[in-house]
Each structure stands twice: as structure tokens, then as C-alpha cells.
Amino acid sequence: MPARARSAGNRQPNTFGTGSIEDVAFQTHDGSIVLLVLNSASSAETFTVCYKGQSFNYTLPAGAVATFSWK
Predict the structure, then answer these.
(1) Where along the chain do its domains lie?
(2) Cα 25 to chain center, whole Å?
(3) Are 13 and 22 a contacting pair, CB within 8 Å?
(4) Which of 23, 40, 44, 69 places its Cα 20 to 30 Å from the Cα of 62?
(5) What class has domain 2-70?
């Protein structure tokens, strides 16, 4: 998740429990944190994003990609 990112261009891949949700997080040169999430399942999947002690749930449609960023 985003908290794992350390340096510019440092990618941190992860797969959530079901294996159908895949993500990569990184920190950009300007210090922003970017999280990309892919749902490779044939149905919508809900997952939780956690960063700096806060979290939210997000439902990603089948085959969709989402981008989250923090500055």
C-alpha cells in the first residue's frame, strides 16, 4: 500500500487476499504517493486502502483500474 513507498520510482507490488486485486504504489519526484489498483476478476471487488492511520473502502468494477494519489 502507499505507506510502503520510499523513493522516487520505487515500486511496491502487492496482491490482496483473493488474488484478483493487484496494486503498485510509488513516490514521485515531487513527493506525491501514487497507488494503482487493478481488478482482474470477472466481478466487482471491494478492498481497503490504508495510509498514515486513515483508511477507506473502494469497490472496483470487474476489469477496471483505479489511481489514487496523495500529496
Answers:
(1) 2-70
(2) 6
(3) yes
(4) 69
(5) mainly beta
Count of other CB atoms within 10 angstroms of residue 5: 22
All three cell numbers of 5, joined, read 513507498
* Residues 6+ away with beta carbon under 8 Å from 36: 23, 24, 25, 65, 66, 67
Q: What is the side-by-side order of every strand in the sheet holding 12-15? A: 12-15, 21-27, 33-39, 65-70
pTM of the model: 0.75
Q: Does residue 23 sit in helix, strand or coil?
A: strand
51 in Cβ contact with 1 (< 8 Å)? yes
- The whole-angstrom separation of Cα 14 and Cα 21 is 9
The per-residue pLDDT string of the chain (71 residues; one tens digit each, 9 = 90 and over) reads 444 333 334 455 555 555 788 889 989 999 999 999 999 999 999 989 988 889 899 999 999 999 999 99
